[in-house]
Amino acid sequence: MPIFAPIDGISEPRTFSNWQLAIFMDGKVIGVGFQKTGTSSLREALKILGYRVKDTTPKALIPILKGDYPRVLKLIEGYDALEDTPWYYIYQELDAHIPGSKFILTIRDEASWYKSVARHIGDLRAAHHEWIYGRGKGLPKDDEANTRRVYSTHNREVIEYFKDRPDDLLVLDFTQGDGWEQLCPFLGLEIPDVPFPHYNKTAGKKPQKRGLLKRFKFFRKRVKNATKIWYIDWRGYW
């Protein structure tokens, strides 16, 4: 069990569980890997370790585009960790605003990643994908070269950004067997006595037909997303 030095006038050292250590930590744990690189596995692993995780947050996009970081930071109050969209794409800003944070870059083979993200996004255009992949290029299936370029450039720039701060960045490839043995020492926590979670494995899964309710929800989301893109265009936020 990890031990902290005496605090708050307590004369004897105190031991803490992983979840208590997560609460005491400075900064946050920030996932900087693209979606479909094991972000769900990272989220569940961090939850097992006691972190309160903020994942995909579409409502953060407009404050980010406006440079309204007080509003962005308000959205993550009460969370110890961030991962998935949009957090991985503003890692430098988060680094500046949240000192003492730890960053985790999840990666996977570029070709298999592209197939996964193209299938995942499909025909559903969204404002945050237009922001990440470029206006008019938010459907990865329609432009493989651009999508792979954005992905590889991001990973390369993250590694370059932290090259002089090796203690602040961990690179994980879950497809190569990375798990607790790499994550827990990086965070200064004990390895829990449970298997590492592996989520969203698509190998062997058959495409599911959409029922009427699912088709309606998809249509509603498409309209909502198109309206948001139109609004951002109109306001000139890109």
Please, could you describe this protein's structure?
- By secondary structure, the protein is an alpha/beta fold.
- It is 45% helix and 8% strand.
- It has ten helices and seven strands.
- The strands form two sheets. It has a five-stranded parallel β-sheet, sandwiched between helices. The protein has a two-stranded antiparallel sheet with strand order 1-2.
- Helix 6 (110-121) packs across helix 8 (144-161).
- It is globular, with a radius of gyration of 19 Å.
- The chain starts with a strand and ends with a helix.
Question: Secondary-structure map with pairings?
Answer:
Layout: E1 3-4, E2 14-15, H1 18-24, E3 29-31, H2 39-48, E4 53-54, H3 61-66, H4 69-75, E5 81-82, H5 91-97, E6 102-106, H6 110-121, H7 127-133, H8 144-161, E7 169-172, H9 180-187, H10 212-235
Parallel strand pairs: 3-5, 3-6, 4-5, 6-7
Antiparallel strand pairs: 1-2
Helix pairs in contact: 6-8
